[in-house]
Design a protein that fits this description.
The chain is an alpha/beta fold and 236 residues long. The chain has a ten-stranded mixed beta sheet, with helices on both faces. A hairpin with a 2-residue loop joins strand 7 and strand 8. The two termini are 27 Å apart.
Length: 236
């Protein structure tokens, strides 16, 4: 079992996510994607701090350094360089590099010419990270992948299935994110072991387990640790 980094969520999941699990996360249109950060950050921190690998494939429109600022200050640098990788948009990283003496080795520009080459690159980085550890987390937002490669939707759907199969057989953990009305979401939901949804209800952000249906939480953000983590309140 891999811990989620959140004790209350671990308890609901009987210890955490089972090794080899595929997790799909649906973020409703009314919910800002930042709502996923307090769930995402503790999960990544928990993996890397326990000598497990974490491969984060960030959304193409995000500043890669903005993502890592929630993670890098809270992990030993030795662990960070060995067990953490974040793949970001190449031209964004090049732009950031002008303002930095040297980009960290864990920040990796992605290939952008077509999805087939990009996906091969993801697989290569995953396999390389897998040689360093006996457990690995991979996270990717497929709604932004669809936006980037709108003419390769069938290849994206095939990649979701193939990537899931590979990660499942390696007893690792794959967390995929998408939005309603995206082709990737239906594929993700069909192959995932657990499907979670972040939704808005009366102005509050809620986290619901849709498959299987076994919990509903109100999600509050707790900053007491120095990084955003979720404080989950039971809701009926």
């Amino acid at each position: 079992i891999f811990s989620t980094g959140n004790q209350r969520l671990d308890n609901k999941l009987q210890g955490g996510f089972k090794k080899g699990s595929i997790i799909s996360v649906e973020i409703e249109e009314e919910v800002d994607r930042f709502a996923f950060v307090p769930i995402f950050v503790p999960l990544v921190l928990n993996f890397v701090s326990q000598s497990y690998g974490a491969l984060v494939i960030s959304a193409w429109d995000q500043n890669t350094l903005a993502v890592t600022r929630y993670i890098t200050p809270f992990i030993n640098k030795k662990f960070l360089n060995k067990y953490f990788k974040i793949i970001g948009k190449g031209n964004q990283i090049k732009k950031d590099k002008k303002n930095s003496e040297e980009m960290p080795s864990y920040i990796i520009p992605g290939i952008e010419d077509n999805f087939t080459n990009t996906f091969k690159f993801w697989e290569k980085e995953y396999e390389e990270l897998r040689t360093r550890t006996d457990g690995c987390l991979v996270t990717v937002d497929f709604s932004f992948v669809e936006l980037q490669y709108q003419n390769e939707l069938l290849d994206i759907q095939k990649a979701i299935i193939n990537f899931s199969s590979n990660i499942r057989s390696s007893n690792d953990l794959l967390v995929m994110v998408s939005r309603p009305n995206y082709k990737s979401l239906e594929v993700m939901k069909s192959i995932s072991d657990i499907h979670l949804k972040l939704l808005e209800f009366n102005g509050a952000v809620m986290l619901a387990a849709i498959k299987p249906q076994f919990f509903l939480y109100n999600v509050q953000t707790d900053q007491n640790a120095g990084y955003p983590r979720s404080y989950l309140i039971d809701s009926s």
